[in-house]
Each structure stands twice: as C-alpha cells, then as structure tokens.
Model the fold of this input.
Amino acid sequence: MILALRSPNFFSPSLAGFLFESHYLWWLALLVLGGVVLLVAYKRLDKRLTRAGVGVVALTLLWALAAFLIETPAERLYAAHVGLAKAAEKHDVDAIVGYCDPQFALKFTEISPNIDEAKKQIKGYMDSLNIKDTTFTRYDITLNPDGTAVTNFVAITRTDGGALQTTWRIIWADLPDQDWRIRSADGHLTQQ
Done:
C-alpha cells in the first residue's frame, strides 16, 4: 500500500470491510455494466444513458481506489499477524514484544512478567527452534465493536527440527496510536 489510511472509526468493522476491502468481482461486474450502458448509449445517441454509464464507471473506480488507499481493521489485524511471523523468522524479539500490550499474558509457555527476562526467554526458545518460516493454514477473526478482536488460527512453522503445527487464540486491542496489540495469547502444539 502506497498511502495507507485507517478506515474512519464511525464505520462498523463490517461496513468498513464492505466498503474498503477488495471486491474484484463486484468491481468487474460494475465496470462491465457501465461499459454495456455506454455501448447502448453510443448506439442510441442517448445522453442520459451516457451520463449513467460514465457515472457507474467513475463510481466503481472511486470505490476501488478508496479500497486500495484505506486499510480496514481486519486488514491491519492480518498485517499484524504477518509482521509477527516475519519477526519470528528473523528472531527479532523486540519486534515480537512490540506487538504486545504492556499487560499481555502468554499462556503457551511460562514467560516471566519482567519484560527483560521475558525477552531472554523468548529469544532462547526461538533460537532453540531456529524458525525458518511460518504459514497460516486457518485464520478466523472476530472483530468486536469495542475495538477488540479475537483471532483463531493454525500455523505451520518450519524449523531445523521439522515442522511444528500450533493452534492459537489471540485477543487483540486496536489502540488508536499504536495499532493492534496482543492482550493475551493461548497456543498449543497440535502436531510435530
């Protein structure tokens, strides 16, 4: 995204998703409809149909442009997941901790509440695995009107020791100045 703007807060997450997420088939159908109307208008020399066709095409292009420029809460949340996966691949503990709310709780392993000690524990855990990459095989989100979200996903993480499949349930808070931050995370190893 060249210029990513947050969708306005007065839009509900579902309305923001409808207006500002990609709808390629809708856009294509509307552009075809506008083209057909313009073709009929040209054959009939009908100025009203010409205006209608131009209006349909113009509004569709504006809708598509808005969708590419404005990021919805769901798009930003997915980007946070991808950012976490990339930080894990790079063993960047500071970036991982940066996605966490100051009072976050991680239930996957026993992590110290002291941030410096927690960073050492996470770094040691990641170094022992030597994570290569992570792929999401299932990703379900629930966006709540109060600015929180719950994601449930399954991740396959390729490591030196093979592939690990983990299942996660993460509770997020959409902070106005910081974007999505993890409130709590509960994960478990489902396959090794």
Q: What stands out?
A: DSSP finds six helices and seven strands in the chain. The mean pLDDT is 84. The beta strands are 5-6, 70-71, 100-106, 133-143, 148-159, 162-175, 179-191. Residues 93-191 form a domain with the Nuclear Transport Factor 2; Chain: A, fold (CATH 3.10.450.50).
